[in-house]
From TrEMBL:
This is UPF0173 metal-dependent hydrolase PKOR_17235. InterPro entries: Metallo-B-lactamas (IPR001279), RibonucZ/Hydroxyglut_hydro (IPR036866), UPF0173 (IPR022877), UPF0173_UPF0282_UlaG_hydrolase (IPR050114). Belongs to the UPF0173 family. Gene3D superfamilies: Ribonuclease Z/Hydroxyacylglutathione hydrolase-like.
Length: 226
C-alpha cells in the first residue's frame, strides 16, 4: 500500500489498482506549492467534513478524473449541484463495500460546514479495511471514547491522526487515541499549514517516543509504503 502526502490532511492511497484520495486541500496551501493538482489521479475522494482546508480541490480533481466522491449526505448533495455525477452518500456508522475494500464512517468530534456556509452534516472519520492493510483516518477530531469501539470491530494496522492542536487533538491526545485504537504506528496530519497549528517537530517526536509509538511525519510530495 503506497501513501503520498499532499499537505494538511490530504493523502493519496494506492490500494491495488485503485487510487483513494482523502481531504484534498492543495492549491491554496503555500507549503504544497510544488504540487500540481491537475497531475493527481484519483478514483475515489473521501471527505471527512466540509471545511475548506479539507475539500478545496475536490471538485476539480473529481471532474478531472471522473472520481466518486464519498462523504456525508449533505456534502454529496452539495457536490451534486456542482455537476459531479459519481457520488456515494454516507452517514456515521454506515459501511460500504468498494473495489478496494470496505469503508466505515465513524464518529469525529468537530464542526462541519462547506466553504459557502452550507450545513455539511456531522464531521466524520473513516476506517478502511483493504486486503493489504486496515487503517483509521480520523479526520479533524477531538479525543473521544468512541475511538475505543474501533478495535472491537477492526484489527487496525495504523492510524492517521491530527496533531496540530487548537482545532483538533494535539500530540498528547493523539497518543491516547492511538492507544484507544490499539495501533503503534501513527501518521501525523493537520499541522503546520497555518500559524494556529504549527508544531515543534522534535517535541512531538519525543512525545511519541515516550508513548512507545512510531510517529511518521511525511514531507509534502513524499510517498511511503506500509
Amino acid at each position: 500500500m503506497k501513501i503520498t502526502y499532499y499537505g494538511q490532511s490530504c493523502f493519496l492511497f494506492e490500494i491495488g489498482e485503485n487510487r483513494v484520495l482523502f481531504d484534498p486541500f492543495i492549491s491554496p496551501n503555500e507549503l504544497a506549492s510544488s504540487i500540481n493538482v491537475d497531475d493527481i489521479k484519483a478514483d475515489y475522494i473521501l471527505l471527512s467534513h466540509g471545511h475548506q482546508d479539507h475539500v478545496h480541490d475536490a471538485e476539480q480533481i473529481a471532474k478531472n478524473n471522473n472520481s466518486t466522491i464519498i462523504a456525508t449526505f449533505e456534502i454529496v448533495n452539495w457536490y451534486g449541484a456542482k455537476g459531479i455525477e459519481k457520488l456515494h452518500p454516507m452517514n456515521t456508522g454506515g459501511k460500504v463495500t468498494l473495489p478496494f475494500g470496505t469503508v466505515k464512517m465513524v464518529n469525529a468530534i468537530h464542526s462541519s460546514s462547506l466553504p459557502d456556509g452550507t450545513y455539511a452534516g456531522s464531521a466524520a472519520g473513516f476506517v478502511v479495511e483493504a486486503e493489504e492493510k486496515t487503517f483509521y483516518f480520523a479526520g479533524d477530531t477531538a479525543l473521544t471514547y468512541d475511538m475505543k469501539l474501533i478495535p472491537e470491530q477492526f484489527d487496525v494496522d495504523f492510524a492517521l491522526l491530527p496533531i496540530g492542536d487548537n482545532f483538533t487533538m494535539d500530540i498528547h491526545d493523539a497518543m491516547i487515541a492511538a492507544d484507544f485504537v490499539q495501533v503503534d504506528t501513527v501518521i501525523g496530519m493537520h499541522f503546520d499549514t497555518f500559524p494556529y497549528i504549527q508544531i515543534d517537530k522534535e517535541e512531538v517526536k519525543e512525545v511519541a517516543q515516550m508513548a512507545d509509538k512510531e510517529l511518521i511525519l511525511m514531507e509534502i510530495g513524499q510517498t511511503i509504503e506500509l
